[in-house]
Specification:
This protein is α+β, with helices and mostly antiparallel strands. It is built from 11 helices and 28 strands. The chain is elongated, with a radius of gyration of 33 Å.
Amino acid sequence: MKKKDLKARPPIVTLMGHVDHGKTSLLDAIRKSNIAGGEFGQITQHIGAYTVSNEGRRITFLDTPGHEAFTNMRARGAQLTDIVILVISVEEGVMPQTVEAISHCQAAQVPIIVALNKVDRGRENIPRIKGELARHNLLSEDLGGQALFVETSAAKRTGIGELLEAILLQSEMLELKADYACPAEGVVIETRMDRGTGANISLVVLNGILRNRDHFTVGDTWGRVRAIFDDAGKPMKEVTPGLAARVIGLSQLPPVASRFKVVDSEKTAREFCETNLARPEAGTVSTPITLEEFYQRLQAEGAKDLNIILKADVAGSMEAIAESLQRLNTEELKVRILHSGIGPVGEADVLLAKTSGSIVLAFNVNIDPKARETVRQENVQVRQYRIIYDLLDDVRKSLSGLLEPELKEVVTGRVQIKQIFKLSSGQLAIGCSVLEGKVNRGGKARLMRGDKAVAEVIVASLRRFKENVREVTAGYECGLTLDGADEALPGDQLVIYRIEEITRSL
């Protein structure tokens, strides 16, 4: 990509949070329209994304459902969201879905802006909520962190300007850019079949400019853009990077989170799709892993991490398990609990495990039927336990397999050098006697002169009288040659040793 083709693009923002904390009402306040009240009647114009302007700069908001859609995007390699607005009602505070949202964002490494909503009805709870969020590594600036916090009220329409300013400030820090000159490409965010117009897909353009009559591919299907509409249902001629639109032109519906790309002709589109059919979908974030396989997964640098999704029946058990798992951490190994929660293993847990390469540990809880099917489809390992010690032992065994073995030097013999002969090849032939243990052909040795190590050598050949032998034991004399030594003196000694790998455990 040529640097001269890169220009700033609008940020793409997703609102997440616990149910009824005001996500849609807040988006409604931002758009200054009644999405929450009129969404059902406006379904034909609903594209799952809305663009607003603030001080001449545009922001695209995704209105896709919470964590599962967010994680599904990541599972298909479509990390679409630049910024997440975490909406928290100050009346209720941090709730289970709040924690889930934080876990998903941190796993995706997406920056979070916290919208403390409904401040007209519970402002006195804000210090407590900030303290709760700090326990999930989400610290406000007044507590020494870097996360942006904005106080809002969707009902009173207060704090909206400050929230938009925070989004633009965060996007400046991210330096979001796109190539406007390349063929358009992006991600499908919603699909539906309309009786009058056929397949309708909602998409976000990430690079290039999508125009009417463009040929494009999506997964294993292709088409030509026949019409483009914005979020208000108005026709558009083109869609630039960072913006969303509804597009008509495909013969069938592609999967949500599929990537689309504009090509030069229908022939190219057909050939591209036929090639795609012959290979698995590219771009998945990670490969599912089992606890037994984990020791084989080593990071190239730094600590080795075991990612865990932890579900338990009660808070006491969950906290005890989490604390015990953290105690297994060393400088080399780390247990990373990406998400923990109370209750059965749900589909969101499985999808998060899929996208982050995690293992799901379930203590005294079941797996939801829908999640069980996802476990099978995505090949995610969910391990269920009834005894805490069994859970901890399994993790401990897995981590022990990741510890680098301890290298131990074991002395196997000591040899006294008596005579030195220089061969025509320049190599030293040494006459010696074995004082202790034994000497092996091919063995490692350290040439010692008194207490000083002169050289690290290898016993290249070993003879007794005129015969080549594999080893000579204590009490016998022998002749040998060394690799790695330019000189040796009568009276020097060879310390014969081997290196053993000692398996370490936690």
